[in-house]
Specification:
Number of helices: 52
Distance between the termini: 112 Å
Helix content: 40-55%
Largest sheet: 21 strands, mixed
Radius of gyration: 41 Å
CATH class of the domain at 677-740 and 768-932: Alpha Beta
Amino acid sequence: MNNTVREELYKTLCDLLEKQFKDFKWWLKGIDYNEKPNIVTASLEKANQQEVVDLLIHYYGEDAPKVCIRVLQKSNINDVARKLEETLQKDVDAHQLPDSSDHGSSNYSPRASYDPLKPLIQPMQDHEAAPSTSLNPPTGPHHSAMFRTDLCEQELEDYRSYVKTQFETIEDPNSDPGERVSLDKRYSTLTILRGQLSQQERVNGIQAIGRKHTEIQAISKRPESSAKIKTLFDPIHGLNPKTVVLQGAAGIGKTMMAKKIMLDWASQQFYPDRFNCVFYISCREFNCHAESEKSSIAEIISKQWPRCHAVENFIQNILKNERKLLFIIDGFDELRYSFDQAEDSCCSDPWKKEPIKIILRSLFQKKLLPESFLIITTRPIALKKLNRYLEYPHFFQILGFSGEKMEEYFQNFFGDDKDQATQALRFVQQNDTLFTMCVIPLVSWIICTVLKQEMEGGINLQKMPCTLTEIYMLYLSSLLKYHHKESEQDVQRKLKNVCSLAAEGIWKQQILFPEEEVMKDNLVQDDFFPLFLNENNFKRDIHCIKNFSFIHLSFQEFFASLFYVLKGGEQHHSENLNTNLRALLKRQTFEDPSTKCEYFRSEFAVEFRFLFGFLNEENRMRELKKEFGWEISCENKELLLNWVKKNINSKINAIDLNWITQDKHMLYLYNSFHIKIHLYLEKEILSYLYETQDENFVRDALCAITEINYQCNSYMELMILTYCIQHCQNLEYLYVRSPTSIYQADNGLFLPKNKVHSHRNWKPFKLDEGYMEDFFKSLTKLRNLRVLRLENLHVTVSCRLQLVEVFRKNQKLKELNFIFEDTNHSAVELLCSALQRPCEIETLELNVKGMTQKCSMDLADIFWRNQKLKELKLYLYNIDDKTAHMMFWGLLHRNCKVEKLWLSTELTESCSWRVAELFRKSQTIKQVWLVLSYSNEQRFKMICEALQDRHCKVEELWWIHTCRLFGKWLTESCSWHLARVLMNSPILKKLWLWVEDSNARMVNILCKGLQYPKCKLEKLCIHGGFLSNTSSSDFLEVLKRLKELQLFLCRLDEKVEKMLCEGLQHSACQIKKLRLEGEFLTESFCRSFAEILRKKTRLRELDLLTNNTNNIAVEMLCEGLKHADCNVIKLGLGGKFLTEFFSSHLSDVFRKHQTLKELELFPINNIDGVVEVLRNGLEHSDCKLEVLRINGEYLKVFCGHSLSFGTQIATIVNINQNLQEFYLHGDCISDYETKLLCEELKHSGHNLKDLWLNGKYIIQNGEWMDMEHMT
């Protein structure tokens, strides 16, 4: 035994892990090699690596390397065994003697050269015998493969050439026989990102990719994770991937990418030095094999190249160097096999035949060919199942085309006709739905196919329909027109059968259809079934079977939707299919427990767009009706219409009840759009209505809609809104907002490099003026619009005339809110130009940054020219002195009629002077809201002095001071200035004061102003933080002078609770009206406050709006309200009081409190809680309530307008015959609902003398007002 072999044996054993070395010794003691005695067990138990080598040589001599390799193989340490085999073979080659012709015959003997590898490859004794087949593992010590460790270059080149011929061309689904296109010319690079999809993304399917760039923008934050085909196996964080998983939605291009990898390898463009052979395995084929059917990986490989049997030892040589092998497993999600087998149900022998599922699982788990490489493609929905069987996989997401690559695909598709490619791309880009769906390669192919046919027929793409249904219908029409030769009756029957098959598959969640299922509907006919179904030929033993699938899941959804809306579709279905559309809707929708509303699941969005798209019987179905006599089922159409009416009337309330009244004021001040509390109509449903393009259907569906609150994120969404609102004839409130601007996806993955901008250099996408022009044109068709709010919409010059028409034709339009975040000066000028024409606008809100002098001059003219303007809300930022001068000049004009001013601005010295001048000289402004920032003492003093002026008409002041000044909050000096306002103002009656982090000294100064004998203040609104810094004596003195107190309590600490109760029960307290809001419902406070209610205090009006629930505290409070000595005659309730939780307590109060004559309610979420409370309380005959008020102020701000408000009000009015007056404040009921209410009340037995809705009497002194007055 030479030293080289001894050293190699020692190195090999040292490379083993501890457990592997232990297993090696266990197998070695019972090897039974060539009838030689085994090594004594006792000698092996504690032997180290050196000692084991010595034992091997001692017992087996020259055969020691063979025994070592055999034991390694039996220990399943194949990689080490193979490495030792190769090392020893190299050593043999290095010491090989010259050819026999060079040797002297007298000295040369073949046995003189030691060859340790000659008899090494033997069939394992514990393997079951291979079945009789043409492909068997090599046996015998003299097999020629024993001396070859690699494939020859010619064999590899032959195999590469064969792969090229198989993958260099592909067939389009609609191609003629023999028509093929180049894969390289058709293929465009797909975006690949490293990492796993989230659980939600896994089930979103195609639609998750095409959601108006939402996912694309999220993806764009991870450019460092991008990958390419050529880098899939590059090291990641120092680790070399051996298993790569490519995941993506259906039609996203997984199979195309797998085939491209095969072609690139054959062209030596994909890791040419790493992989000797690459094999493509389609999982779809395995579904046609019985689970019990057996095969081996060697047999599977042999089917990849028909000539492999003609090449000597091809398979054996391939398997010999498994680290040079790559297997592409395409379509794991399509496998029907269960992989839940026992752990020992695996295969490690490439020649051993096992069921396919065991072969695949062993490949995945690296039990079989552990050194080989894998690429597995799958849909996200199967990823969790796959992950259980993989060893250290690396996940990549296929996201489809980037914007640049989608453009490249269009150019490739149209070839040399660049003009057609440009037209098609422009057509898709202007339609957001089509554009985002084109991220999916299959959809791009569909659209390119259809558009190419249309352009070749001379159609102008600008007049093309822009819906998915239209595109698919055109594609269907073209297939039926050019590819079928059967009679119309045969085509009608077969196409209905296709629809039935698709619907059944959707119902069963089935994608692949066995031949017998297709045969029963007679679909397998020449020139017809290939139009819609893919035929897949699968080999099983000596037979060939067929399996079918739709070209793509979207086609299956398309035909399934068509099946459900066609008249007579029920006659063409299997017995297992529930064809009831109602059942389909129920199955594919879910109910939100909080809102009790039904919503579509996102994974069914495309199917339902088709479902609604088919409802356009006039345009969509015209050709099919003409050719085949098909008609839309009226029953199903009515069902879908009713479903839309039900769900579109439901609003989504995202309101936290902790945000009650104190934040309501912040909401007013900072504009309700800035607080992310949105009440909106379901965008998906609006998109379904747009898909119909059926004006009558849409008009009927939207007839009851009075409010739309819409977040517009793309031009397509603007187009959808434009189409829908023109059919909302009863629309009264329209709120439309967009992001700061509508941008293209700002990332290199989705834009060409020359179009990528840094975040700070974002630029608005160039807007076709036609979009906004069409939007405003649709507004001119409305006649009941009362409030219009537009935020960040890019108003263009061409909109001017349309905007004028909106104001002219909408005589009910009273409130207009415009927010311009992008410093759009031209938009402000256009707005001002339109407002200078005669219009009915009474409330104007403007939020402008960096206003120009020209804009301020235009606005100033509006302030005094528009005699209807009564309320003005201005949010002004970065304005210079001249601009401020022009603005305030307009407000001081003698013809200016503005009475309420909301002003939020940066208080510069010049601005302070202008505001002060306005307060001194304005003869109309009586209510002022001030939110001032960056003020110093001098500027603050300026305004306070103006408020003390004898000519100042301000009666109600809302003052918010929230900004730091030189590191301090509102100073003591500023407090003295405000206190002097309270002391000296001749007219100020109400003060709402919110000062952050007020201290005791500052509060004491303000209290001195409130206690001053000449102070005219009657109502004070403060927060709990202010009160906590007040002394008991100061607070009591304030209560002696005030008539009305309003407290906002974020929390009720012990000091505030004690002070409040002591002050209210003091005999000198003058408070007649008390309003408590927020967190006050504690047991200790309610116990004390109930005692106050039992005493004959001056308190007559009590408003309670709480955020929390405390049953015991409410019981205590209600006991006080029910007491005979309680003097409260008017009770206001809001927040959690208007829930079923408190309704039983409150109904007892209404029944027993005999002096309670007036009730005011402040609903927050909806009117339902109000109805429940009133129904339980007013139904008792002992209830003496005569006046009922519902204040919709909060309902309007937070929730908009309840579409069932009018009907429920009628129910309330009819509950109690003692009710004589009903008032609804807050402008929260629409004119449409007012009409419905009137119809209800005219036919009921109410006793109302006065009915007041939205500032108008409907009934006055028992007399009905005329409809002209009401509306």
